[in-house]
């Protein structure tokens, strides 16, 4: 089976949908597409590309839109990653189905694996491809078992794995299988999606395929899965990568309590805990406690500061003895000494908070 699965990868195109604006992560996404945000010290998308390459897939088509040039500037033709990457730019938003149809002319193979570019997943790519080919399916969907499916669209299947219907969010779901946002298509099916208009693959394409008698099957598992769209999920996802809870080939042999870029400086007595990531050229002062936090490049955190479950963007300066809990600090912002920020606060790029300028305590 291993040899067969490897062959499946070699004859599969990967399509990654990375056109979204990432508004829930603002201000981090004002100038950077969400899939390019540093996650465990690599652009988030690079973890997915590494898993695609590990599965034997080499041809990748990125469907881009917002800040499209950033992807090509960073990844180029993909050769340094062992990949062959091409780019297609959506001039106007086309939805999931429209985005998939829009890359049709770039496809080289009869099997096409589609990924949502803002999902962190531990799914077995080779296993999904194996299911697709064994069942000779027109479309294979990655389905995830979750404890509480009420917040998701549910996808019931029969004993053979055939998808029966697609259900919107409901208070009494008939199954705990949800659509995890990864699909394998026969190329000919993609050609049937209407071109040059908005198409929802979930609401339009898949129901139409079922009603027309096409074979849509589910590959069901309990793998790691997280939508990285909100700050708390982004922090948790990066932390899980650092700790090895979520797997990335980029971090083989380097997982643990923290990952620190070799160019960063961490003073003695500083504590880096719970999957913290420290980016290039960042400096962490003595006596700091950085817990479950993503620190981008070129950040300075002065001695005695405490930062929990937060995202600190590039070029930020955090003053001595500041306390930051569950916050997003935008690029180049300055947080003065002894400031206290908490409860989902977002500090936008370039904002300067003076020493003790924001406090929850009564003493300054």
Automatic annotation (TrEMBL):
<comment type="similarity">
    <text>Belongs to the transferase hexapeptide repeat family.</text>
</comment>
<dbReference type="Pfam" id="PF00483">
    <property type="entry name" value="NTP_transferase"/>
</dbReference>
<dbReference type="InterPro" id="IPR005835">
    <property type="entry name" value="NTP_transferase_dom"/>
</dbReference>
<feature type="domain" description="Nucleotidyl transferase">
    <location>
        <begin position="14"/>
        <end position="241"/>
    </location>
</feature>
<feature type="domain" description="Mannose-1-phosphate guanyltransferase C-terminal">
    <location>
        <begin position="256"/>
        <end position="344"/>
    </location>
</feature>
<dbReference type="InterPro" id="IPR029044">
    <property type="entry name" value="Nucleotide-diphossugar_trans"/>
</dbReference>
<dbReference type="InterPro" id="IPR056729">
    <property type="entry name" value="GMPPB_C"/>
</dbReference>
<protein>
    <submittedName>
        <fullName>GDP-mannose pyrophosphorylase</fullName>
    </submittedName>
</protein>
<dbReference type="Pfam" id="PF25087">
    <property type="entry name" value="GMPPB_C"/>
</dbReference>
<dbReference type="InterPro" id="IPR050486">
    <property type="entry name" value="Mannose-1P_guanyltransferase"/>
</dbReference>
């Amino acid at each position: 089976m291993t040899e067969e699965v490897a062959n499946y990868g070699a004859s599969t195109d990967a399509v990654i949908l990375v056109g979204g604006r990432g508004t829930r992560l603002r201000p981090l996404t004002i100038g950077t597409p969400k899939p390019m945000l540093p996650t465990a010290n690599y652009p988030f998308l690079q973890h997915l590309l590494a898993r695609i390459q590990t599965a034997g897939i080499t041809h990748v088509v990125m469907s881009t839109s917002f800040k499209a040039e950033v992807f090509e500037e960073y990844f180029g033709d993909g050769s340094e990653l062992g990949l062959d990457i091409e780019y297609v730019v959506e001039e106007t938003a086309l939805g999931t189905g429209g985005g998939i149809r829009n890359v049709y002319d770039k496809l080289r193979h009869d099997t096409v694996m589609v990924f949502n570019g803002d999902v962190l997943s531990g799914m077995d790519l080779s296993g999904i491809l194996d299911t697709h080919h064994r069942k000779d399916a027109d479309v294979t969907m990655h389905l995830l078992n979750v404890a509480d499916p009420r917040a998701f669209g549910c996808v019931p299947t029969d004993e053979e794995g055939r998808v029966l219907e697609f259900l919107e969010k409901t208070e009494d779901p008939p199954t705990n299988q949800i659509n995890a946002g990864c699909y394998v298509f026969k190329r000919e099916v993609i050609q049937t999606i209407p071109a040059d208009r908005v198409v929802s693959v979930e609401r339009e394409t898949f129901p139409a395929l079922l009603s027309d008698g096409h074979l849509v099957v589910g590959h069901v598992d309990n793998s790691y899965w997280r939508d990285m769209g909100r700050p708390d999920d982004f922090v948790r996802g990066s932390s899980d990568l650092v700790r090895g809870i979520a797997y990335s080939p980029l971090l083989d042999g380097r997982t643990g309590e923290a990952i620190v870029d070799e160019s960063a400086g961490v003073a003695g007595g500083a504590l880096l805990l719970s999957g913290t990531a420290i980016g290039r050229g960042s400096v962490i002062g003595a006596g700091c406690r950085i817990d479950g936090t993503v620190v981008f490049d070129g950040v300075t955190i002065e001695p005695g500061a405490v930062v929990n479950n937060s995202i600190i963007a590039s070029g930020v300066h955090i003053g001595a003895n500041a306390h930051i809990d569950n916050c997003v600090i935008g690029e180049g912002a300055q947080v003065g000494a002894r400031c206290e920020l908490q409860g989902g606060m977002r500090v936008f790029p370039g904002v300067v908070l003076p020493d003790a300028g924001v406090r929850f305590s009564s003493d300054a």
